[in-house]
């Protein structure tokens, strides 16, 4: 039996004692659960998890170790992690370190040896709750104080906290990441990426499809974007409440007014919807996992997708000229739409499949169709 040197306190008063699985210290955030069977490294380094504590429903975390290739950003963005069991043995030819060393390196607090099944049921029934992990020195009054000082995610602009601080050109590709025999693709499309918390594999996919990518901060002035004369603009994933990103909404409205092909994913999808006049709202416990069924309304095919979002676009508020393209089969929430007149469309999930299935990867193709149509006209 592992020693109890960590605790998790939830805002409803639930207190769970377990074992420290990472750094000693305090982690406070919104506690959510992720149902992915694999991909704990990609999930932990997804900037969309800023200010959240991730509960992994898969009981065994760390079995395949950590490597230098599967990062989705430069560091861990989740506030803290919750496991049922830590790894007892790492087994993978790609492994270069283990989860504990990974967490220690980035100073992330984690707790293991607690009943994650019970915790997941509680979140599913009551909704996502704020929580605090204390590891090392257990002081319940300190945990209560930390919870009282946490503002939650509603009305919080977190994209500005995770975005790049400077403009740069993305040059990495799948070829030099995985050493596969991928042919060099001509960079025929000049694309600007608004970084609200972008994942590396999204950039790799766009790069390998022929884009010269200029990544800019979340609040980069729209005039400077237009001066780059982009063929298209990509709006990335990211954390926080989309309604708090007023600067981004204003910038996107200008893009739409200039008829520049625009593609939004996750937070970018929600910001695009807000720019078109729709509204967003907080979900009960969000979508976090790699097994979410989504219906393509045109083909009637069911696609299994990767998801990570705690806010959704309110379908009832969409303008009449918006074409709905995808819906969740879990709860009928909006997953995709297109604005033909504005040369814009978006998808709520994570089509880059990091981690997860590749069923929805073809949504990237629509972006290139929009840019090609603009060339033709």
Key traits:
Rossmann fold; 19 strands; seven-stranded mixed β-barrel; about 30% strand; Glucose Oxidase, domain 1; ten-stranded mixed sheet; alpha/beta; globular; 11 helices; about 375 residues; single chain
Mean pLDDT: 94
CATH class of the largest domain reads Alpha Beta
CATH domain fold name of the largest domain: Rossmann fold
H/E element order: EEEHEEEEHEHEHHEHEHEHEHEHEEEEEH
Structural class: alpha/beta
Distance between the termini: 68 Å
Give a concise summary.
This protein is an alpha/beta fold. Helices cover 24% and strands 30% of the residues.
Note down, in words, how this protein is organized.
- With 377 residues, the protein is an alpha/beta fold.
- It has 2 domains: 6-148, Carbamoyl-phosphate synthase small subunit, N-terminal domain (Glucose Oxidase, domain 1, 3-Layer(bba) Sandwich), CATH 3.50.30; 159-376, Class I glutamine amidotransferase (GATase) domain (Rossmann fold, 3-Layer(aba) Sandwich), CATH 3.40.50.
- It is built from 11 helices and 19 strands.
- It has helices at 40-44, 99-105, 116-126, 140-148, 159-162, 174-178, 200-208, 222-227, 246-257, 267-275, 363-376, and strands at residues 6-10, 15-20, 25-34, 52-56, 60-61, 80-82, 85-86, 109-112, 129-135, 168-170, 189-195, 211-217, 232-235, 262-265, 280-296, 302-313, 323-328, 334-339, 344-347.
- It has a 10-stranded mixed beta sheet, with helices on both faces.
- Helix 9 crosses helix 10 (267-275).
- The radius of gyration is 20 Å and the shape is globular.
- The N and C termini lie far apart (68 Å).
- The model is unreliable at 175-179 (pLDDT under 50).
């Amino acid at each position: 039996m592992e020693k109890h040197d960590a605790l998790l306190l939830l805002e409803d008063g639930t207190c769970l004692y377990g074992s420290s699985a990472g750094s000693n210290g305090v982690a406070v955030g919104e506690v959510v659960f992720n149902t992915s069977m694999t991909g704990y490294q990609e999930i932990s380094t997804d900037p969309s998890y800023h200010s959240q504590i991730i509960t992994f429903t898969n009981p065994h975390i760390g079995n395949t170790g950590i490597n230098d290739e599967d990062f989705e950003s430069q560091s861990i963005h989740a506030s803290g992690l919750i496991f049922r069991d830590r790894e007892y043995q790492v087994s993978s030819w790609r492994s270069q370190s283990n989860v504990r060393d990974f967490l220690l390196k980035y100073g992330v607090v984690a707790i293991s040896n607690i009943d994650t099944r019970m915790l997941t049921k509680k979140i599913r029934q009551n909704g996502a709750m704020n929580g605090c992990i204390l590891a090392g020195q257990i002081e319940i009054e300190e945990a209560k104080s930390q919870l009282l000082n946490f503002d939650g995610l509603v009305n919080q602009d977190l994209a500005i906290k995770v975005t790049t601080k400077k403009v740069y050109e993305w040059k990495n590709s799948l070829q030099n990441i995985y050493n596969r025999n991928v042919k060099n693709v001509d960079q025929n499309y000049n694309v600007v990426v608004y970084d609200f918390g972008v994942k590396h594999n999204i950039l790799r996919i766009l790069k390998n499809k022929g884009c010269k990518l200029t990544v800019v901060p979340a609040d980069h002035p729209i005039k400077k974007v237009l001066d780059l004369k982009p063929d298209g603009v990509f709006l990335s994933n990211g954390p926080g409440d989309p309604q708090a990103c007023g600067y981004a909404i204003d910038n996107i409205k200008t893009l739409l007014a200039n008829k520049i092909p625009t593609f939004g994913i996750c937070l970018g999808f929600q910001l695009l919807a807000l720019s078109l006049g729709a509204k967003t709202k907080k979900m009960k416990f969000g979508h976090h996992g790699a097994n979410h069924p989504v219906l393509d309304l045109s083909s009637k095919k069911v696609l299994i997708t990767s998801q990570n979002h705690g806010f959704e676009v309110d379908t009832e508020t969409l303008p009449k000229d918006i074409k709905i393209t995808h819906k969740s089969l879990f709860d009928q929430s909006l997953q995709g739409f297109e604005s033909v007149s504005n040369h814009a469309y978006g998808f709520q999930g994570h089509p880059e499949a990091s981690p997860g299935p590749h069923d929805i990867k073809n949504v990237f193709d629509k972006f290139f169709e929009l840019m090609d149509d603009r060339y033709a006209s």
